[in-house]
Write a structure and sequence with these properties.
Amidase signature (AS) enzymes, eleven-stranded mixed β-sheet, binds glutamine
Length: 448
């Protein structure tokens, strides 16, 4: 379904945006989707922006206390491109602080799942997924370092698209881990993802890692299931996934099981690389230039910075400590360099499979846990939830997460990963999928 096209064609009743804002305010208090709602919106297709992507003149905090009050003097390239194409900013969405988390609970306002408010919405792009699940005509600009688009999209029952690394400029993103970060989208249909990609990709002189690429609609009839991933999926999810695979197989897809032994290391490899990069990125938050300001200069050097950096949340502090350790000269070859080598090995193996197939898996190994359960997870339990979503970020490959089932009323997702620049092949897969599988939405704010 082409929500963007339909909305732009239809006549909007007078007062449409005011009514939308009013209703959104109420639901937002319930679910914690937005950090900031743009009350000035009065035209255009509503688009939300994850709060780690800069928008000129709108407070941008990455859901961190340390950035409270930061108002960027510029907009990210992707935002500028979309604004020129008729999209208007509805607000900045809630997230795990700086993108650190898988459940949307590492922020001041824990995000809640629109299908069951006692459960998590997924993270780190929690607010983006909630906004997409509650608003009929809306798209979300989000970001993923290691599954942060796919995870919340699957828990909230929406489409999550994480493009090939470099296709969308990262200029204006508050970096988590520069070699992994990708800006991507959430929407209610794959057709809307096609529209968004068409308007936002391409080289940007402000981001040297951005690229121009010709994207074609590769179509593949072979789907690979990776044994090492499949064996770690929760029972419920496994039987739902098996059913989905059966459907695909009767639709003509050839399904194959293959093994990538190296993929078992993807979680440690991912966390070593991402923490090393995160700890350098967080070094600039000193209380001088951005956000939180400490004005008392009479203190000593250590006291001054300790006070300013006290505002970081627990996971941010953990990443600073571990990341700084990992980068230390005496252990660099033991952890960081080894991680880079394994990352390369995983990429080579996956590339060879992806020549004539897509990789398929559930998006998350479990159903959305309750907020209480998620709060009691140890850091290692948290990290292990990213098992299925991390490989595509590690390799820079595109992936799409599509709603594929509802278990006890809670959405479950599948994830399809393609090779470099095969983005539109994944979008086409989604479009085909949506012809036979209807998505459920509990809310349709802004319906016309
Ligand atoms: N759970 C992952 C992390 O904390 C996801 C991060 C992301 O994609 N932004 O690193």
């Amino acid at each position: 379904m082409k929500y963007i096209e339909e909305f732009l064609k239809k006549e909007k009743p007078s007062g449409y945006y005011n009514k939308l804002l009013e209703e959104l305010g109420g639901l937002n208090r319930k679910f914690g989707a937005f950090n900031f709602i743009n009350k000035q919106i009065s035209a255009g297709f509503p688009m939300s922006v994850k709060d780690n992507i800069c928008v000129k003149g709108m407070e941008t905090t990455a859901s961190s206390k340390i950035l409270k009050g930061y108002i960027p003097p510029f907009s990210a390239t992707v935002i500028k491109r979309l604004e020129k194409e008729g999209f208007s900013i509805l607000g900045k969405t809630n997230m795990d602080e700086f993108g650190f988390g898988s459940f949307g609970i590492n922020s001041e306002t824990p995000a809640k799942n629109p299908f069951d408010e006692t459960r998590v919405a997924g993270g780190s792009s929690s607010g983006a997924a909630i906004a997409t699940a509650i608003l009929k005509y809306h798209v979300a600009v989000a970001e993923s370092t290691g599954g942060s688009i796919a995870a919340p999209a699957s828990f909230c029952g929406v489409v999550g698209f994480t493009p090939t690394y470099g296709l969308i400029s990262r200029y204006g993103l508050i970096d988590y881990s520069n070699s992994l970060d990708k800006i991507g989208f959430m929407s209610r249909s794959s057709e809307d993802i096609r529209t968004l990609m068409g308007k936002s990709i391409g080289k940007d002189p402000a981001d040297t890692t951005s690229v121009d690429a010709v994207l074609n609609n590769v179509s593949k009839q072979r789907l690979v299931i990776v044994d090492e991933l499949y064996s770690k999926i929760d029972k419920n999810i496994k039987s739902s996934f098996d059913n989905t695979v059966k459907k695909l197989s009767s639709a003509g897809f050839k399904i194959e099981h293959l093994s990538i032994p190296e993929i078992d290391y993807s979680i440690p490899v991912y966390y070593i690389i991402s923490m090393a990069e995160a700890s350098t990125n967080l070094a600039k938050f000193t209380g001088f230039k951005y956000g939180l300001k400490v004005d008392d200069f009479s203190k000593g050097y250590n006291d001054f910075f300790t006070e300013a950096r006290e505002a970081f949340g627990e996971e941010a502090k953990r990443k600073i400590l571990l990341g700084t350790f990992i980068r230390g000269a005496s252990v660099r070859s033991k952890y960081y360099e080894k991680a880079l080598k394994i990352r390369r090995a995983i990429k080579d193996k996956m590339s060879s499979f992806l020549k004539d197939s897509f990789v398929i898996s559930p998006t998350m190994p479990v159903i959305a846990p309750t907020i209480k359960e998620a709060q009691s997870f140890t850091p290692l339990q948290n990290y292990s939830m990213d098992l299925l979503t991390i490989p595509s970020n590690l390799c820079g490959f595109p992936s799409i997460s599509l709603p594929s089932d509802y278990l006890n009323g809670l959405p479950v997702g599948i994830q399809i990963t393609g090779g470099q620049f095969e983005d539109m092949g994944l979008v086409s897969f989604g479009e085909e999928w949506e012809k036979s599988f209807k998505y459920n939405f509990k809310y349709n704010l802004g319906d016309l």
